[in-house]
Amino acid sequence: MSGSDTKALAHTANGATAAHGLPGTFNGLFAVGFLARASYGLARTPVLALFAASLGAGPEAVGFAVAISTVTGIFFKMPAGVLSDVIGRARTLFMGLAVFAFVPFAYLFVSSYEALVAVRFLHGFATAIYGPVVMAVVVSVAGDKRGEMLSWFSSVTIMGTLVGAPLGGFLLSWLSGGQEPTLRDFHIIYGVVAVMGMASFLIALWVMHGRWDSPTHDDGQTFRAVWTKFRTGVREILMDKRVLLTSNMEGVQNLSVGALEAFLPIYTVMVCGFSAFQAGLLWGVQMAVTVLTKPLMGRISDRHGRQSLLFWGIFVCAVPFALIPWFTSFSSLLLLAALFGLGEAVVTSSAAALVADFCREDHLGSAMGTFGTIFDVGHASGPLLAGFLIGVVGSGTDYRIPFAVVAALLVVAAIIFRTGVKVDTHK
């Protein structure tokens, strides 16, 4: 990022109008991100898994449907970062928001599992384009408060997801009247998804009016030059063991999030016999705890170091995750979901900030792209791995051994991180 870009972003962080770059205030960015994430959250949990199951999908196929949108991010987050260097961050962010706005209308034509998978893949371009660019911007302007600022921004977007999940469960329960949901019920919900995504898009049009950044190339930054610099940065980042092991911690934690996202609704509704609204409420409680505790955890990581928090946070995720399929009472599941949300707050408030601590400023985009790719690999692998284990080991209904295997992977990753990243370079 050039010096002029950095100055523009700094003005943005203070709520002033930036001559180039992002919307004039963080408040505008937060509002747009909130609505976009609410739309995406409504489309995903618990509605997506139940939609796939209603179309005849088994556990493995449900896991694939949930994971496929994240696979998009695996392949396209790094190119999105390069594109933002060439055409500007504001334009790149707006491209992602356009996907949030227009792709959800395709759900209204879905009547088969194959069509659902195809639309989910396309919908994944929304976060693939939007996600890594936003992270790099926040880290750039946060200074020595990057852990806290990343946590605040993440909490705002999580609040969108927090609204989306229970709303999806409520709408599905209300539309179906407690009966088996019909195709029409799912189409109505995805119509709401489209309206919310379009609202985010229109607000972005208003906020970003007249503030399109026009990157200058007076330093010879042609696309080829930018691409060469990008490859060099990625090469150096991929050779940094600390960055990879730290990113892997977030990735493996996100593996458990993806598994829970796909199969907690199925377990809650089909095994425990609760309603779709209660399934969405469980996910909402987990997200609420994450939102409420994440800024505090980010502040603690800024002041006291990140590595110990990251290490122990994995265990706070692993233990309740392994225990969930051993309980069928709603109160117990609420408590375990809340504990998992606390662990997620601890891990995610430290991981991205620690990666930023380890890398140079001019490699920040490459580092965030690498981080985002590993993040998405974990998120995509969770539903696939859990679905495979439930189908093969659990015979489709027993979740205890599959969830224990995923929890064990978290513990192994934590031990490897502790061994490989020994020196806390932060403060």
UniProtKB/TrEMBL annotation:
Domain of life, per UniProt, equals Bacteria
Record-annotated membrane-spanning stretches: 47-76, 88-110, 122-143, 149-175, 187-208, 264-289, 309-327, 333-356, 368-393, 399-417
UniProt keyword annotations, A-Z:
Membrane, Transmembrane, Transmembrane helix
Q: Which Pfam families match?
A: MFS_1
Task: Spell out the protein name for this chain.
Answer: MFS transporter
The UniProt entry, under InterPro entries, shows: MFS, MFS_dom, MFS_trans_sf
Q: Where is the Major facilitator superfamily (MFS) profile domain?
A: 25-425
Q: What is the organism of origin for this protein?
A: Desulfomonile tiedjei
Q: What molecular functions are annotated in GO for this chain?
A: transmembrane transporter activity
